[in-house]
Amino acid sequence: MAKKEPSPISKRFRGYMPVVVDVETAGFNSKRDALLEIAAVILRINNEGLWQPDETHFCHLIPFEGANLDKKALKFIGVDPYHPFRFAVPEVEGLKTIFKPINKAIKKHGCTRAILVGHNPSFDLSFIKAACKRTEFKMPFHQFSTFDTATLGGLAYGQTVLAKAVQAAGFKWDSNKAHSAIYDAERTADLFCKIVNLWNNTL
After folding, report:
1. For this structure, is 60 an active site residue?
2. If you average pLDDT over residues 85-111, what whole number do you get?
3. What is the pTM of this model?
4. In what order do the strands lie in the sheet with 141-148?
């Protein structure tokens, strides 16, 4: 039986599988403030060797017991945490929803673990880690290493603000949809893939 050829994804970033993540929260303190939305975009490499978004996974979360809900933060992201049509789930269920397809993709591509890609990703990672600690749920991401599209956008296009970097990369930006975890994660994924593909063309 012929040995299966390793996935190109497993060979690109030292065995790490990049997954684009965005969270929306009720403040800036990951230990105290509520985590309200998580979106994750799993990437693929197409037949031409180009990176592109593949799957988006998303969930609304119920604020954990005792969570702080900063009114200014809620107004900024436009979220009513207890609106019935959010169809929010407890943190542990939400983490399972997001992590299951990530773990499946890690196994599929023969990667060692996922690495979080985000725009100023230390923020997103801190809230994910805090939720995992509260729920005792194992995280698929590297504990501290990340890929930052603010830095990459500054390098490739001279723009560190997400909206400006996305537009400089040739994508449209709808400010009415911004500050939704799905929208921001998908635009961040577009930006990350565009930059990685630019770099690949120089190798």
Report:
1. no
2. 97
3. 0.94
4. 51-60, 35-45, 16-25, 113-118, 141-148
